[in-house]
Amino acid sequence: MKCALLAVPVLEYATLNMGWAAAVCPAQQPSGKASPLHNAGASLCSKKPEEIVVLSRNAPFVTPASVSRLSAAVLKERHLDTLGDIAERLPNVSFTSTTQSNPVIMMRGLGGAEEETSSLYVPFVLDGIPMMSLALGQIFDLDHMDVTRGPELTKGPNAFGGMVSATSRDPGDKLAGSLDFEYGTGNRRRAVMSNDIPLGPNTALRITVGGEVADGYISNRALDRKDTAGWHSWFGRLKLLHKDSAGGEWRVSLHHVLNHGGNDYFSPPGLALQHVSENTSRGINNNDYWAGSAQYHRAFSRKMIVDVALGGNATQWNFQLPDSVYSARTGFTMPTRQAGGTITLSGASGTLDWRGGVYGQEMMRNTPYLFDMSPYYLSNTTAVLNNANVAGFVELGWRFSPSWRLVPSFRVEHNQWSMSQWSGLQTASVPDAYTILQTLPKQTASRTVPLPGLKLEYHPQTESGLMQFGWLSYTRAYMPPGFSPHAVMAETAQTPFNASYGNNLEIGYRLHDRKEKWSAEIIGYSNLISNLQVVTNNANGESVVATAAKAHTRGMELSGTYKPISSLALSGFLGLTYAGYDRFMFAGQNFSGQQLNGTPKNSFGFSGTWTPGDGWSVNVNVVRRGRTNLYPSSTMVNDPYVLVDAQIEKKWRWWSVAIYGRNLTDARYLTRGLAVGQAVAANPRLLGLRVGVTY
Fold first, then answer.
1. What's the predicted TM-score (pTM) here?
2. How far is CA 599 from CA 17, 88, 106, 122, 479, in A?
3. Separation of alpha carbons 512 and 467, rounded Å
4. 3-state DSSP call for residue 366?
5. In 3-state terms, what secondary structure has residue 74?
6. Residue 633 and residue 266: Cα distance in Å, rounded?
7. CB-hemisphere CA count at 13 Å for 66?
8. How many CB atoms within 10 Å of residue 442?
9. Is 116 helix (H, G, I), strand (E, B) or coil?
10. Around Cβ 591, how many Cβ atoms within 10 Å?
11. Distance from first CA to last CA of the chain, Å, rounded?
12. Distance of CA 282 to the CA centre of its chain
């Protein structure tokens, strides 16, 4: 059965719909097949109540959180090519970006510090494995992407502000393939080919390769070029799916993205908004990542389901600004290595269901930073950050009445941080010659914390009338302590910043018409935070992670869908966020009462998709984003702006042709601001043509 997805009506209209517990009758379970616990299409069983079993928690309608699920079709139709494209079209989600392909996701006011520290407010997970989203570049060939707002305790990585989880597309069981070509403004050319290759009755391989070349959207007056912010990228994925005779499902994936490009994005705001640069060099923005994952799923019985995801990734980001931005050579080459995974056991019996597991990860990141305006001043810092963390988590659901369920959860997390090989060199020869070289021995910090959570869910078990689901939840959130690797003084670098803690309350309610005519959702939240980690500059001009003693975020998300006729689907959303510092004194300044940077107080949008028949489809998407202080500089402000996207597509049996536009009104706004008065502007109007063929 399908229903409207409530959490993100602007992007998705259909998703799996199931009750709190789609009923499972033991006699109906096929022998040797996966348990219906993961069959979201199951319906309520007419057996006695004690045989009703709580099912997969993945269906958005019965997920006690604010979740937006973006299907592969939606990602393709909306031409959402990066995490930044996705973020600015969702309620209470935003991003900051220094380049076209390196966005950092922010949710409900939280996030943005990924390049300064390896603690993540909003982790990104690909096929169950945490990734460094800064190096992700292009997203491609996904089955779906889930964007969860709010903290998570039992999904592997500990998420303070939310989580983005992407699942690549499984191989099909028949020999088939597809090929897509695109051409758009900025001389953007893109081609992607995917092929499904059966290797046996229970084994198949999917191969996806692609590439993209673009001149970018910057006109450089000094160099008389229009390709200084251009890029060329290659990407590919191998994914093997095997279903064994015992009912287990094995998925092994290998991903690779290589992106080389210019870095001519920073200009004074007036020029940046015109997409004009006067930089005297192109700069460098190169990303390279490899990732591998192995996943296993098996339902041994209704009482025991096993899910395992293990893997790792190796990324390298080479970032060099044009010399004229700071009148200095500045940048870094940042390699990152991560390995780890999650093992989860879940099941149900009678009125109880459970979920528990362990998570572990080790991360190493080399964080050099050069600022060279010789002979007047040179700063060169080096450091290696290492983080090892393990966690155990458990969740127990008790359906104490046909309509009510109580779900306590608990997570224990241990983090071991270290910073080694730190050195800070400062030197100059004009007007006075001096050299200061400082080094530090290995610095360590560790913390073990208990993190409780509690949810109360309401879901009437009826087969007529409106479908309803509501929840009230409390979650204790946590961000580990760490070090500021880009500090240039030993005294600053060796002082760890504090751990952050949050107390998050959330209440939500969903309604859905069983005839699939309409749906509605309302979610409210409040998060009280102590020691909020903030990237800023101290009195010496060092880039450091400071902590705001007290801060809060609160707001709400409203969404709804309406389908007046079978060929027309309408939807809309409203997001409200107020995120501010309650008590924050730093470097002689009082930031108390100020809004957190990078967070619009409001955003709303609506969309419509019309499918008149004969292979035609038309969709329009409109989003308005409210006034925003730029991240990380609060001295620059984005005025409200409106994004309008549209596509017209015609499909035949094997072919499809689409004309699309993104930001059709050519809204001008900024995505990054620096204290020196330089800024990065978002992409201008994009127009393109896509031609696809399946075989």
1. 0.88
2. 32, 11, 8, 14, 20
3. 5
4. strand
5. helix
6. 14
7. 30
8. 11
9. coil
10. 20
11. 28
12. 29
Q: Which residues pair with residue 377 across a beta bridge?
A: 373
> Cα separation of 174 and 192, whole Å?
19
Within 8 A by CB and 6+ apart from 319, the residues are 98, 99, 102, 263, 284, 285, 331, 332, 333, 334
Q: Which of 595, 574, 592 is nearest to 583 (CA)?
A: 592
Write phi, then psi, for 584 (nearest 5 degrees): -150, 105
- Higher-confidence position of 593 and 9: 593
CA distances from 629 to 120, 577, 594, 689 (A): 21, 13, 10, 35
For strand 188-200 and strand 203-214, is the pairing parallel, antiparallel, or unpaired? antiparallel
The yes-or-no verdict on residue 16 having pLDDT over 50 is no
For residue 310, how many other CB atoms are within 10 A of its CB?
A: 17
What DSSP string runs through 26-48?
Answer: GGGSPTTS--GGG-TT-----S-
User: CB–CB of 593/580 below 8 Å?
Assistant: yes
In contact, 423 and 401? CB cutoff 8 Å: no
Residue 59 to residues 2, 21, 259, 409, 598: CA-CA distances in angstroms?
Answer: 11, 11, 35, 19, 31
pLDDT classification of 117: cutoffs 50, 70, 90: low
pLDDT in tens, 410-449: 999 999 999 999 999 999 999 999 999 999 999 999 999 9
Tell me the C-alpha distance between 272 and 683, whole Å. Answer: 10
What is the H or E stretch that residue 535 is in? strand 518-537
- Among candidates 529, 545, 527, 536, which has minimal Cα distance to 635? 536
Give kind and range of the element (H or E) at residue 86: helix 83-87
Q: Which residue has the higher pLDDT, 476 or 7?
A: 476
Strand spans (E) along 267-403: 276-277, 284-301, 304-321, 329-349, 352-366, 369-373, 377-401
Tell me the backbone φ, ψ of residue 490, rounded to 5 degrees.
Answer: -60, -40
Length of the chain: 695
What does residue 26 show for φ and ψ, rounded to 5 degrees? -50, -35
Cβ atoms < 10 Å from Cβ of 593: 10
Q: What is the DSSP string of 190-205?
A: EEEEEEEEEEETTEEE
Which two structure tokens, joined as six digits, stand for 389? 């963390």
DSSP string covering 683-695, please?
P--EEEEEEEEE-
